[in-house]
Write a structure and sequence with these properties.
The protein is α+β, with helices and mostly antiparallel strands and 416 residues long. The chain has two domains: 172 residues, Nucleotide cyclase, GGDEF domain (Alpha-Beta Plaits, 2-Layer Sandwich), CATH 3.30.70; 196 residues, Alpha-Beta Plaits (2-Layer Sandwich), CATH 3.30.70. Helices cover 38% and strands 26% of the residues. The strands form two sheets. Strands 1, 2, 3, 4, 5, 6, 7 and 8 form an eight-stranded mixed sheet that branches. Strands 9, 10, 11, 12, 13, 14, 15 and 16 form an eight-stranded mixed sheet that branches. Helix 5 packs antiparallel against helix 6, helix 5 packs across helix 9 and helix 11 crosses helix 12. It is globular.
Length: 416
């Protein structure tokens, strides 16, 4: 049983902050959870109005890590924008809506239960057809029908976390993976070719590859509500570059105007086991708020900038590598004191930092990707990982050199 969280673990004024500081975290809901007895009954009551049932569809790019070693940041942003526009245009035409901030290479969409399973699968096949024909990067798609909680602009719950992990970690470029819950909703004689995956059942049951089947009868109209995470001016330039991806001079000029050199610190906190997935959802949000609160206090008067806290991830940017390492080492001690297990990745390079229309900030760039690969993909809990570029800039006695390959890219990493 997870220990009960207390408001005394947070800064007294935290729940009075403006929403643009809170980002997408639902502070009012967390405040009500902390004030409750934190029982299953309390969790069900607080989440009742947020429960939704339908299709959760997640995409993730394939081969992005290798591509980032071959192209500049502006070209990468233009390349990953291509499949996102296709996913959104076809998805909205099929009754879906975008979830979250579409700044990274992954996407998430939600389709209500009124959307037929056949229509959804036809649309997913059409997405992969268009991506294959029009885009310079491939994507994997994961889809599940189930019950989720819509909070702060995101989808939460054990089933949502499961399909997100499957799309990110267990799909290949061009692949469509659907859960047994979707297959069960298909009519007899549906006409789709499905192949059960030969692997242990996941948290959402068996998985199936969607290999072929009917496509939508009509193409969608113009996508006028694409969720642009950037400013209109930047997005217009990005679209112009997208139309002329071979124009390296234009890409370099955009990079000089919009990017800055920063040291990126990515921290992931470990999730806690709870008595039910409803309690886990609320505890997870409360821990994200605790992570944000601790970082805000720790960055006061410092040279670092909090970019965002999203789920178990916090991202921070620094101009100075020594300051970034000092922050990571001292922040780890702070989180340890609060019994929050964490791991860190730190890299340096050009990044794009931008304001979001709904408040808060976001970031894009190779250092974010490398920091994630070091910490999340290969890192051990309780450790800090420095890229070779960061290690060359700091005094880091006691850090051990590691060498390994992630997503086809060889990395030299220092663990401490």
């Amino acid at each position: 049983m997870a220990a009960k969280l207390s408001r005394s673990q947070y800064s007294p004024a935290l729940f009075d902050v403006a929403q643009d500081i809170a980002g997408g975290l639902p502070l009012r809901l967390v405040e009500r959870w902390l004030a409750s007895e934190q029982t299953q009954h309390d969790a069900l009551h607080l989440l009742a109005d947020s429960r939704v049932t339908g299709f959760n569809v997640v995409s993730d790019s394939a081969g992005l890590t290798r591509l980032t070693h071959q192209r500049g940041l502006m070209e990468i942003l233009a390349i990953i924008n291509q499949p996102k526009e296709i996913i959104h245009g076809l998805g909205v035409a099929s009754g879906g809506e975008a979830i979250g901030i579409w700044a990274a290479d992954n996407t998430q969409m939600f389709y209500p239960r009124t959307v037929g399973a056949e229509a959804l699968l036809s649309m997913l096949l059409a997405v992969q057809d268009a991506v294959s024909a029009q885009c310079q990067i491939a994507i994997g798609l994961g889809a599940h029908f189930g019950e989720f909680y819509r909070l702060g602009g995101g989808l939460y719950g054990a089933e949502s976390a499961a399909i997100e992990a499957i799309a990110e970690d267990d799909t290949e470029g061009g692949e469509i993976v659907v859960s047994a819950a979707i297959v069960a909703r298909l009519d007899p004689g549906h006409g789709f070719t499905l192949q059960r995956r030969e692997q242990p059942a996941t948290a959402i049951g068996p998985l199936y590859r969607l290999l072929d089947g009917p496509r939508p009868a009509a193409a969608p109209g113009p996508d006028v509500n694409y969720p642009i995470p950037y400013s209109r001016a930047f997005y217009s330039e990005l679209l112009a570059l997208q139309a002329h991806l071979g124009d390296r001079a234009t890409a370099r000029a955009m990079g000089r105007r919009y990017t800055v050199q920063r040291v990126v610190v990515l921290v992931e906190r470990e999730s806690q086991v709870a008595d039910s997935h409803e309690i886990a959802v609320l505890n997870d949000l409360a821990l994200s708020v605790m992570l944000k609160d601790a970082a805000i206090r720790h960055l006061e008067g410092g040279a670092g900038l909090e970019i965002k806290v999203s789920g178990p991830i916090g991202i921070y940017a620094f101009e100075d590598a020594a300051r970034a390492l000092e922050f990571a080492e001292s922040f780890r001690r702070v989180l340890d004191h609060d019994e929050i297990v964490s791991r860190f990745g730190i890299d340096v390079g050009p990044v794009l930092i931008f304001d979001l229309a709904g408040g808060g900030k976001d970031i894009a760039g190779m250092p974010v990707n490398v920091a994630s690969k070091m910490a999340q993909d290969r890192g051990c809990w309780g450790r800090i990982y420095l890229s070779a570029a960061v290690h060359a800039l700091v005094d880091a006695p006691g850090y051990t050199e590691l060498r390994y390959s992630v997503s086809g890219v060889d990395l030299v990493v220092y663990e401490g």
